[in-house]
Specification:
alpha/beta; Stationary-phase Survival Protein Sure Homolog, Chain: A
């Protein structure tokens, strides 16, 4: 059942959640999220995610050739590894060409690294949620502020568990036909999840990493850029599949992070640094902002009552 393009959760069936991401179908963030969702026995879970890492591909789509969908091994869910981008996966997953019905909610994540400020433009994780939003399906992107040396894969399970109250509250809003049509949510979780300061409603800021280019002599030089937009110089660089092979006379350049611009107090990045969970993000400022001002405090109260 739908209302003006938004699926309505019936009270007599489990809501369907479709999960995608940009780190790839084998990423621990997605796997942990799916395990936690399945363990609740409250949802029908589907997975449609890229077959390899697609971090920072933004909202790119595949246009010139077909994409493949290969069944993937997940316990308790129907899952496909797709040879496309996060936006491709979200679009295919809600199209009823792959799955028999439209999901009630699409979740993109859990991403390795935060997605605050202007980084939502680069993010394939946010694009997965945004693409579902384009198709009229309620959606959420989830990112964990991974820090090398502090974080470990078990933190993704804690992140997923911390998001359950939010997911349940959103599904309740959808069921009650009070979920806004012109926005989707971008949730960020702090590094130290067990000691988080609670849920915070914020606005998107303008924080961004300053990046540049460095000339290199081979594709293996310079370290690997992680999805956290930091460099891993210790591990081997994985050469991504490309349709072009550099010629001997080609100049090679590798992107590198040269600093960070943090601005705007009382925005997403600041509250994430302070240990709070989540921030809303909208692609339609007027409609979503009205809902935020009038109704989102009710969602926050619902979340608090479920914790």
């Amino acid at each position: 059942m739908e209302r003006r393009g938004i699926a309505i959760v019936n009270s007599d069936h489990k809501p369907t959640i479709m999960v995608t991401n940009d780190d790839g179908i084998d990423a621990p963030g997605l796997r942990s999220l799916v395990r936690v969702l399945v363990s609740t026995n409250r949802y029908t879970v589907q997975v449609c995610a890229p077959d390899s890492e697609k971090s920072a591909v933004s909202h790119s789509i595949t246009w010139r050739h077909p994409i493949s969908a290969r069944p993937a091994d997940f316990d308790g869910v129907t899952a496909y590894a797709v040879s496309g981008t996060p936006a491709d996966c979200a679009s295919l997953g809600v199209s009823q060409a792959l799955f028999p019905s439209v999901p009630d909610l699409v979740i993109s994540g859990i991403n390795m690294g935060s997605n605050c400020g202007y980084h939502v433009v680069y993010s394939g994780t946010v694009a997965g949620a945004r693409e579902a939003f384009f198709h009229g399906v309620p959606s959420v992107s989830i990112s964990y502020d991974w820090v090398g040396g502090k974080s470990n894969v078990n933190d993704y399970t804690l992140a997923a568990e911390a998001c359950l109250p939010i997911i349940n509250a959103i599904l309740a809003e959808i069921r009650n036909q009070t979920y806004p049509e012109r926005c989707f949510l971008n949730i960020d979780l702090p590094t130290d999840i067990p000691n988080n300061k609670g849920y915070k409603l914020t606005k998107q800021g303008t924080s961004i990493f300053k990046m540049g280019w460095r000339r290199v002599t081979s594709e293996m030089q310079g370290g690997k850029m992680l999805s956290t937009m930091t460099m891993d110089t210790d591990s081997a660089v994985t050469i991504e599949t490309d349709t072009s092979t550099p010629l001997e006379e080609d100049l090679l350049f590798r992107r590198e992070v040269r600093g960070a611009h943090i601005a705007d107090p009382d925005t997403d990045w600041q509250f994430l640094r302070e240990g709070y969970i989540w921030s809303p993000y909208s692609t339609s400022k007027i409609g979503c902002q009205l809902w935020l001002n009038m109704n989102l405090h009710l969602l926050c109260n619902a979340i608090a009552s479920l914790c």
